[in-house]
Amino acid sequence: xxxxxxxxxxxxxxxxxxxxxxxxxxxxxxxxxxxxxxxxxxxxxxxxxxxxxxxxxxxxxxxxxxxxxxxxxxxxxxxxxxxxxxxxxxxxxxxxxxxxxxxxxxxxxxxxxxxxxxxxxxxxxxxxxxxxxxxxxxxxxxxxxxxxxxxxxxxxxxxxxxxxxxxxxxxxxxxxxxxxxxxxxxxxxxxxxxxxxxxxxxxxxxxxxxxxxxxxxxxxxxxxxxxxxxxxxxxxxxxxxxxxxxxxxxxxxxxxxxxxxxxxxxxxxxxxxxxxxxxxxxxxxxxxxxxxxxxxxxxxxxxxxxxxxxxxxxxxxxxxxxxxxxxxxxxxxxxxxxxxxxxxxxxxxxxxxxxxxxxxxxxxxxxxxxxxxxxxxxxxxxxxxxxxxxxxxxxxxxxxxxxxxxxxxxxxxxxxxxxxxxxxxxxxxxxxxxxxxxxxxxxxxxxxxxxxxxxxxxxxxxxxxxxxxxxxxxxxxxxxxxxxxxxxxxxxxxxxxxxxxxxxxxxxxxxxxxxxxxxxxxxxxxxxxxxxxxxxxxxxxxx
Length: 543
Description:
Layout: H1 7-51, E1 53-54, E2 68-69, H2 73-76, H3 78-89, H4 97-106, H5 114-130, H6 136-154, H7 159-178, H8 181-190, H9 203-221, H10 240-261, H11 266-270, H12 274-291, H13 301-308, H14 315-330, H15 340-357, H16 361-377, H17 380-391, H18 396-410, E3 441-443, E4 472-477, E5 496-503, E6 506-508, E7 521-526, H19 528-538
Antiparallel strand pairs: 1-2, 3-4, 4-7, 5-6, 5-7
Helix pairs in contact: 1-5, 1-6, 1-7, 1-9, 3-5, 3-12, 5-6, 6-7, 7-8, 7-9, 8-9, 8-17, 10-14, 10-15, 10-16, 10-18, 12-14, 13-15, 14-15, 15-16, 16-17, 16-18, 17-18
């Protein structure tokens, strides 16, 4: 039956549901992130014992500002094996954690299955622990998506809620590992598109989940920042051109990287040669670590900490260049597609350029990290917020200048293949049948000379078919606010009518006094534009 509560109260309850679910998902992902960090620390310890080298870490994640050991050739032979295993566990489609997150959202919530996501998580943990170019954030991004999967098992979520909460879970995982919940929330809604566009509808769920996840994660590991940066002052006017030069040069390096990354043909990187390419990348990493510098191992965040602490000089250019080369080659097989590998490359290049130009290396390191992250992932605002979260509010003017310059100069290329140019390209916002929720089945009008087909027959995909101006049939579940209501009390827009109710496998006539249940399905006869209007009304809070 209809709720006796006033509509204003119902609106608050419906809105409060998403708020509560966002907080719960954030808390759940925060708890899972605590377990993940313990696993990563153990795997990193084993990896360091095997390769003979442990790179420095960041204070926020319990790392030390010193590298231990010397890479041994026999231990480094494990890298090709792990590289091949990673390329096998993480196929080209659906790709790495961040690629999966973006692609699934644009496909209207069609994320890979649980087993595929668990394989991706296993691959990222193994690759990160061995020292390959996988960011620590990748495993947390995947854990956030799995957290929403767990939430689906304990409560019923509709398609819109699943999409919003999956992004919110990823924001919670990223906020925990980066120790920057607000920046992580903005990152998730910004990284979906290559242009300066956002998913404003899911921003608040991402903020709530990221804050809740960071709060739970901090209870176990503390609330220290990801990077320990000395007091950064607002650059003097005379130094601004030097920082602009640093941002421009790092932007050029990022643009060249994207240019090289496009050379890899998709049939090669996605076919049976993919594990071979992964093994070759592991072998190349091992050779560079053995013959040139072991500092190419890890995601580079620990070396960024050394740079902001003043321990990196012009040699940062060489180390950043080697990491740049590995990232350019490894992105074809899903290496380096997260946040921290780009931060490592850009930060080291910025530190080396700052040392050469004689400016503050802590600021130039963060400027380089912001610019390079903007180029590779197309997240100018989130990159600037990350720089401010790590370096302090005094960094805000130069961080915004660096990210804005990098975004304008680099165009709309990026490392993430599922990233779309703008909102209009997304299946979530596309016109025609794509506007309909996943629970709705669109049945196109049958031509007069076409043979009849059973109503319950499986739908044949017709990607080019679009609804005409005539009325069509639609079938969907009963919206939550209609459950218990009688048919004659439903408020439908003009051009929409209920012509049947599917109950217990049979189609019943829509009698005015028929009361709807949770298990019913409604059959509508409507003009496509009118039905889209109905779905828009049903998405409103309290509808």
